[in-house]
């Protein structure tokens, strides 16, 4: 008979005595695991002076006596990350606000080109939203960052960089939705319609009055 089995409880005791495992089963499993709650904890160790008590873990981290850390050189200055050229460029751009005329000229130029092929109702709606954008600009309701990003968008639209212009439009809708939500849908439609034009139809953007 195999020596790996579970015997019933001790019949001499109560009915609910736990079963007794065979020796072979206990040996294969490494014996019954028990938490030793009466395990003795090492007493804290004294330092050389005998006055302070430290645990072994803390004692290992304590540096030997007589060894002090090297003194700090008072002439040493903390390292400072140099200012990148891009940071300076951003500061200069924010200090010099673009004009609304420079922003609107490429937008209206693209709109004039789209009027040859796009429905009048769509173009009129885009123009209405561009005028709303201009009104908010002149009344001081747009932040400098929105103005500068719209200036880049208009320049990308003028250079036929559709993906770059669309990416700026997405960023504005995410970061400044409260400022741009009323008129940005018109800019989005203008980018989509200008992108769909034939290359020979996309001419240089001109002022709406030309």
TrEMBL record:
Coiled coil: none annotated. One of its GO terms (molecular function) is transcription coactivator activity. It is found in: Cytoplasm; Nucleus. InterPro entries: SRA1/Sec31, Steroid_recept_RNA_1. It comes from the Eukaryota. Keywords: Activator, Apoptosis, Cytoplasm, Nucleus, Phosphoprotein, Receptor, Ribonucleoprotein, Transcription, Transcription regulation. Residues 63-203 form the SRA1/Sec31 domain. Pfam families: SRA1. Residues 1-29, 41-85 are annotated as: Disordered. GO terms for cellular component: cytoplasm; nucleus; ribonucleoprotein complex. GO terms for biological process: apoptotic process; regulation of transcription by RNA polymerase II. SRA1 RNA exists in a ribonucleoprotein complex containing NCOA1. The RNA also forms a complex with PUS1 and RARG in the nucleus. Interacts with AR. Belongs to the SRA1 family. Functional RNA which acts as a transcriptional coactivator that selectively enhances steroid receptor-mediated transactivation ligand-independently through a mechanism involving the modulating N-terminal domain (AF-1) of steroid receptors. Also mediates transcriptional coactivation of steroid receptors ligand-dependently through the steroid-binding domain (AF-2). Enhances cellular proliferation and differentiation and promotes apoptosis in vivo. May play a role in tumorigenesis. This is Steroid receptor RNA activator 1. It comes from Cyprinus carpio.
């Amino acid at each position: 008979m195999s020596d790996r089995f579970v015997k019933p409880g001790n019949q001499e005791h109560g009915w609910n005595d736990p079963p007794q495992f065979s020796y072979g089963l206990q040996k294969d499993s490494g014996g019954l695991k028990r938490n030793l709650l009466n395990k003795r904890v090492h007493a804290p160790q004294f330092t050389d002076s005998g006055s302070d008590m430290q645990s072994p873990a803390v004692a290992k981290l304590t540096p030997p006596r007589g060894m002090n850390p090297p003194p700090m050189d008072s002439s040493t200055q903390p390292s400072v990350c140099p200012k990148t050229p891009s940071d300076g460029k951003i500061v200069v751009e924010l200090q010099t606000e673009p004009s609304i005329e420079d922003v609107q000229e490429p937008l209206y130029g693209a709109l004039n080109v789209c009027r040859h092929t796009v429905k009048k109702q769509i173009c009129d709606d885009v123009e209405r939203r561009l005028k709303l954008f201009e009104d908010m600009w002149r009344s001081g309701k747009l932040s400098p960052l929105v103005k500068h990003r719209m200036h880049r968008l208009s320049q990308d639209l003028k250079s036929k960089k559709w993906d770059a212009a669309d990416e700026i439009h997405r960023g504005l809708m995410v970061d400044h939705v409260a400022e741009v939500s009323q008129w940005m849908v018109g800019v989005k439609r203008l980018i989509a319609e200008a992108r769909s034009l034939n290359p020979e139809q996309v001419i240089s953007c001109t002022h709406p009055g030309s």
